[in-house]
Structure formats: C-alpha cells, structure tokens
User: What shape does this take?
Amino acid sequence: MADEDPEIQPDPVTEAILEEVTGAGLDWRGIILVPVLAIFSAFVLGGLVIFLAGEGVGTILTAFGALVTGSVGSLGAISETLTFAAPLILAGLAVGIGFRAGLFNIGGEGQILMGGMAALAVGFSFEGLHAEVHLPLALLGGIVGGAIWGGIPGWLRAVTGAHEVITTIMFNFVAANLTVYLLKSALFQEPGRSDPISKPAFESARLPRLLEFLDEGYRVHSGIIVALLAAAFSYWLLFKSTIGFEFRAVGANPSAARYAGMNTSRAYVAVMAVAGAMAGLAGASQILGNTFLKGTPGFSSNIGFDAIAMALLGRSHPVGIVAAGLLFGALRSGGQEMQATANVGIDITTVIQALIIIFIAAPALIRAVYRVKASDNTEQITKGWAT
Amino acid sequence: MTTVQEVVQSPGELRRAKAIGVALLLLAAVVAIVFANGTIGDSTFRLAKITDTLPDLALTVPAAATSWIVSGVLAFLGAVQISRGFGKKANLVLGLSFLLFIFAFLAWAAADNSFSFIGMLETTVIRAVPIALGGLSGVMCERVAVINIGIEGMLLGGAFTGALVGSLTNKWIGLGAAILVGGVLSSLLAVLAIRYRVDQIIAGVVINILVLGLTSFLSAQILVENPELNGSDTFRSIRIPLLADIPILGNIFFNHSIFVYGTFILVGFVTWGLFRTKWGLRSRAVGEHPKAADTLGVNVYRLRYLNVILGGMIAGFGGAWFTLGSVGSFDENMTGGRGFIGLAAMIFGRWHPVGALGAALVFGFADSLQGKLAILATPIPSEFLAMAPYIATVIVVTGVVGKARPPAADGQPYVKE
Assistant: This one.
C-alpha cells in the first residue's frame, strides 16, 4: 500500500491526503450491488424503449436472448466480445487514470486517432522488420502519439490553467480533421485512391490473432493481452508507485498536495500523457488488430466517449475497468447478433450504456428505487471551469 | 502612453501585449509570403446576386497589391503594438487585423476569379444559427453555474423530434415539440446536476450518448421503414419588407427563415434579461456566489432549474433548424458536433449572449468559407479550416488573447445549509 512508502513521513498534511486517497473504496455494497442494479435497471428501461418503438414482448425477449448468445454463447461470440473489449479497456484506463488525478479526460477520441495514426505510420514505414521488433515499435508509436495528444492539454492546464475538459474536446475535433487530412496526404493514402484511406501496415506489425488455428473467423487478437498488461501496469502505477500516489494526492486535494511539496504542474502533464498513452494504445489496437491493417476516418468509433462509461462503471480502478470493458465488449458483440436475429437496432446498446452511466453516477436513484443502502457519494471529478 | 494608469502593467499584461504584437507581425509575414508573393490577376467580390433586380454590384481589386498593402498595415500595427502598445484597444486592433487578414486571404483565393461575397455572408448567417443557439443555451445554464456539455444532445433531440412530429402533424407543432424535447432533456440535466449533484460534465456527456443512441435507434427502427414519418414541411425564407431591399445588408440579414430572426431576437432578449432585469441580476448572483444569493433570499435551486430548462428549450429550437429549417428529414448524428462548436462559441464569447453570437458568426464564416475554398480550388485543405474554430477556442481558454472568465461557481453543486 502507498502508506508504507518509506519516502513519505507521516505528518498532518500527508495524513489528511492519505485519508482522502485511501478512505473511499471499501464500500462493497457500493462496488458490487449498485453496478449490478444499475445494469439491471438499464436493461429494463432499454426493453421499454424497444417496446415503445413498436416491438412486442416476444421480440424483446428474443433480442435480449440474442444479446447473451451473441456475446458469450459460443467460442466465436466470446472471440468477438474480447475483440471489442480490448480498445474499450485501454480507453477506459485513459479516462480512469485521469479521474484518479482529478482530471476529466474527454479527449479519448483524439488520442485514439493520433495514437492509431502514429502506429499506422510505423507499421507501413519499415519493411522487412521482424515481427518481434516491428510490433513493439508500432505499439510504441501508438503510445507516443497518444501521449503527445494527451500531454498537450495537460501542459496547457499546468501552465495556463486552461480547463482540460474544454481543451480535450477541442483537440478531439482537431484530431478528427487532422486524421482525414493525413489519410488523404501522399504519405498515408493508398496509391490509386481518392478517398481518405491509408495504405496497409506490413504484416510484421500485426497484433497476432489468438484463435486463428481453430477457425479463420475468430477475430480475437493479442490486443486483449495488451489491454490486460496495460491494466496491470496502471494498477501498479496508481497504487504501488510513488508517482501514482502523487497522482492520487493531486486528485484528492491539489492544495494539500502542493503544500506537501508535490509538483502539481508536473503531475498534470504526466497524468494526461499517461492517459493519452493508454488511449493511443487503444488506437494502435484498432489499426494493428483489424483485418486489413488500414486506417479510415473515424476508426476511433466513439470508443473515446464509451471510455467514460468504463471508468465510471469500474470506479476508476483498473480491475473494475477490465470488468466494465468486458461487459461493454459483450454488449457490442451481442448487439450485432441482436440486430441480425431479432431485427432490433444495435443502437439500443448505446442507450443501455447511457442509462448505466446515469444510474452509476447518481446512486441515490438506485437507492430510492430499490431501497438498498448505498453510499451517497456521487463522483465529483471536476471542480468546474473556474479553477 | 500619457496616463499613469496605463504605464503600470503587470508582467502578465506586458507579455500578452508583446504576444499580440508578435502575432500581428506573423500575420503580416504570412500575407506577404503566401498571399502577395507571385500572385497575379484581379479578384472580384460579387456584392449583389446576379439574380437580383438590382444591378450587379461588384468590387474588383488587384490581388497582389491588396495583399501587399494589408501586409504593410499589419506590420505597422504589430510594430506599434510592440513598441508602445495599444493598451485597452489591443483587442479591437487584433480583431480589425484579423478582418484585414481574411480580406487579403480572400483576394488571394479568388485571384483571377470572382465569387459571390454576399452569398458567402448569407450562408455565414444561416450556418451560425445552430452554433449561436447552442452557445446561448450554454450561456443560460452556465450563468447559473450549471455546466451544459449536453448541448449537442439537445440539438440532436430537437432535430429528430422536429422531423418526426413535423411529419405527423405540421411544421409548427413540430417546432413546438422540438423545443419541448430540448426542455425535457435539460430537465434531466437539471435533476441530475441540482437534485442528485451528479458531476455536471458526466451528466452532460450522458445526455449526448443517450440522445445519440435513442435517435439513431428510433430512426433505424421507425423512420427508415416509414419514410412518410421523416419528411416534414419546412420553414421557408420570409422577406422582411423594406429592410430586405437595403442593398447588401438586406440580402445578408433580412431574407431568412424564422430560425435566423429567432436567433437574433433570442440573443437580444437574453442579453436584456440577464443585464437589465431582476431575474438577470439574481441569475448572475447564483452563478457567481450562490451562498450570498441564498442569504439574500434568492431561491438558488428554483433559478437553476428555470434557467437550465429554458436553456434546453433554446437548444431544442436550434435543433429544429437542422430538419425544419432545412430539408425536413432526419439523419443519424446529423448535428455532427455543432453543439460542441456552440460550447466553444460560448467560451469564445466569454459567457455573454452577444459574444456567443459574434463567435458563432465567426465560426459560421469559417464553415461557409470551407465550402467556397473547394470551389475556388485553393491549395489550403478544407480540413485545416474546419479545425480553425477549435484551435481558436483553445487559444482563448489559454488566455493568450485576454482571459475568459467563467462564472465563479460554474460546475459546483450548491448544498443549502
């Protein structure tokens, strides 16, 4: 635990920080029961929406059945679930690490795009490299691309006080336009094409598929392993390292952290760069894990925003985020099956997702509906624009 | 400078003044190197439409000479700003310089060519509508210290409802329904933010995701299979008698649909309300220091609910523009980030309704310029122009061109003691 760290002598300020940093998180009812009830309620309301759209109860049951079989019902379904889960977990970590340090990183979309583009550039620039060298290099490209795109808002926050929510939102749109521009540039564009599509990365940069030997159709690739390693690293960084303690201290109480001698400016830049790196890996996984190894506009496919749901549902804890990523990966995978067999649009999963966030973010709603005891602690991450 | 007051400047202000001076010199350099150098031919700005009854007004300028002159003026202004400084007028000078820069840019882009300048300004006003209304919605909420990131979702909800209800009944009921849905969505924001004290940014993000999911789902489930439900009557342009006959201005401002007029009226009304009425004074007090307002007997919660719901209705009206003010049908995610540009316009306009409108017009201009550039075949990629509003907003929030200060209590839930 962080309080055994020999670097930090117990003094009143540190004690106060420790209390704030470690005090929360032991409320098991809040950690397990509220999310379960939130997910349940979201599905009930989601069913209601399908009903209001004019479908019968039978269709709704078929749809939810398909959601289950399409996500965990077969090896192929599980393969799809894991494929979708990998970038969600990585992007969820990007938001969660920010939350722990009191920063709201809405810039996942942009960081995914920039990380993915950097990984793509590394992927098609070096021909004839061994996969053992090329793949790590391409992933590193993703890390660097994302870290830069996340680090700039962190730096702006540290130096000028510009709020990271505004800057990261704006950076998302800049990145989206930059991506289209790059995909049409001579460097990236596939020769002979006029639309924004890149040439493919070399096979040596591909994230190897895991179950290809069983069936060609199993798409799951080693992106999920990258995601799990990143989650383990995040856990170590946040809860076992001095830097992570500093991150959390700055998040819990910036003034106290500054008073305790921590460099909050440096922490803001570092947090956003690490967060951006995670999202950049998600982008790299999107590019290096896809079948054609090509970049197209919007390959971030809204993962940067879904990531906020991962972080909230997982209580900004790496283990929780992995669980949340698997759940939402299952939703996406099952959603496809639902659309195919029950003819219920996949967008309903987005609705369910939004409802889950509402119930998680406002536990008082759950408490009122189910009459369970849950802590009244709503997540207050941001402290407004006026810092 | 002559007065003592202006001699005493903080280091930050001095740095800012220098930064503005350097920026002006950079603009001058860009104009000289890119726009003036090697450009041949005349540029023609058509000022009145050929289809109009009026004779075809046009302004023809030599492209290179124009750019050289603009570059000279910019360099002069930059030098003055660095040596003596324009003091309080620096922002005005910066604004004017920016207009000159745009003029030189257009002269360069249209060299040996002509284009309808009036048409471009007319499009600017139309494109500014959803941005301005989104920004105004943000001003309403943030002046009472509730951050509204959900503008995008409220626009999208308004657009969908306008098309659906407009197709089922008529355009007026469709418009009313769109406004109502904006109000419902902002009530959700209000309840989450005020009653449940959910982090306001999360609440806003949730509204965006929820509305995107709901409208996409319902549009795929219902509208696609029943196209008759997705083709509403639309609001046409109304010529305002007399005013529309004013040369140039008439075309730009007085020949539009009710959405444009509504935007200008709402901006005027909210400005008057916020700064000239009891309601406005109380709202601003709630946004700056809710505890003090509460102590003086202002009902903090009631004002927050009221203004946030009204703000959502404004966004709902803006959303209807996408369908009822255009072709009458809804497409998935058709607002395409306009709500976020509205948020940017609010910040750019420093939380003031008129400022937000001004910023919306600037962003609308960038939007309409983007379309023109493709026609004029300039070497500037349209993507860079599309980025401009976002980069401008980042520059504003970093405080390079004056500090934009949000209401002091913005984003903080209020707990009555």
Notes: Chain A touches chain B through 54 residues (CB under 8 Å). Confidence is low (pLDDT under 50) at residues 1-10 of chain A. Residues 66-343 of chain A form one domain.
